[in-house]
Every structure is written in structure tokens, then in C-alpha cells.
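In practice, a research group might receive sequence data for several interacting partners and want a quick structural hypothesis before committing to experiments. The following worked case mirrors that situation: the sequences arrive first, and a predicted assembly follows.
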Amino acid sequence: GEDVEQSLFLSVREGDSSVINCTYTDSSSTYLYWYKQEPGAGLQLLTYIFSNMDMKQDQRLTVLLNKKDKHLSLRIADTQTGDSAIYFCAESMQDTGRRALTFGSGTRLQVQP
Amino acid sequence: NAGVMQNPRHLVRRRGQEARLRCSPMKGHSHVYWYRQLPEEGLKFMVYLQKENIIDESGMPKERFSAEFPKEGPSILRIQQVVRGDSAAYFCASSTPRGGGETQYFGPGTRLLVL
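A structural hypothesis for the assembly, expressed as C-alpha cells:
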């Protein structure tokens, strides 16, 4: 079955790197996403990675995918107070026709000034 | 190019009333998804629609909930005879299929409070 798990909370100091981790169970996952949600707001797509990739970098964001261990991580370099939010990883299995996203429960990132 | 629009942003209903949530996808997008987020939880898929078609409703409760995406106008998520447990944030996402996979873009959500 589908299951996506994340740790609930992460606290870092401004300027440090943040690493948010996610594990998933379904090996049929084809696309994996990171979304950011600020209080009272919708979800903002940050980045995504195809399952045949190991790494993707986009400015301060680096996504690492270990397909063998079904582990996904999001690294935010030089974390700023504006990065404080809830971060969700999500998977979809578009190759099997299931386009709906399965989300983790979210990791609340708190950035200390 | 306006993003995904949802209205109302906040909706208060008494138990037993009906709630209608509207979603206008991004321009050029033909797919709409509805998700529900309970407090302190992640989003759970409800239903996936294309124009005039329900493609996947595996996440919809069997009773009281329905969704449509007519040829003209927004997608509507309808909840009849609301109960307190329906209080949640309801998010709509839209996408358009591409050869390299599709990406869902989310609206700001409708926060439903049932008194």
C-alpha cells in the first residue's frame, strides 16, 4: 500500500542548512514532490524529482533520492526565517495511472534567528 | 496567468446545512483534484476530475459528498448535511498532462468550519 512518512518537527538556526527527510513504501512511485505550506495558505510547489534521478539541485534546494531505501530528502542551504513553514513530501505513480498525490504528514521547520 | 482560484476562502456552516466549494483551475489546465486537510495532518486525496468526467473518486466518502467539473464554469465540491467532522481545509489542485509527467498546482484552499 501507499505510505509516506516524515518526521514532525525540525529546528535550525538562521544560516544553517536544513535537511528534511521522507520515506515512502511504494516502489511504483514515479514522481516525488516537495511542497511548502505557510500558515493559513495553500501549498507551493518547491521542486520535484523523477524516480530515475538521484539528485536535483535548484538554487538553495537540493533533493536527494535513494530509490533502494525509498528515502527522499530536501536540503535547504543558508536557511532563512522566511523558510519557516510546513514541508510536505508527496508521491505519485503516474506510470500506473494513479495521478493523485499521496502526502506525508508534513515536517514543521522552525528557523531561529 | 492567474493561479488556481478557490472560493470562498472561509465558510461557516451549521450542522445539517450544505457546503459548496468552488475551484477554478489555472488557464489551460483540464484536470482538477480535490484534497482534504484535517488539522495537523497532511492532505488526503478525495477525487480527480476532467471536464464532465469523474476519473477517480476512490478518496471520496461514500455518502454526502459529490463533485463535478462541468463543461463551463468551476469545479464544485458539494457536502450535504455537514457534520462537525467535515471541518477541514479543502484544497483544489489543477494540472495538465505532459509527456514528462504532470505537476499539480494548488489553490489557497477553503477552510470549512461546521458549528
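Before designing any experiment, note the following. Chain B has a mean pLDDT of 92. The radius of gyration of chain B is 14 Å.
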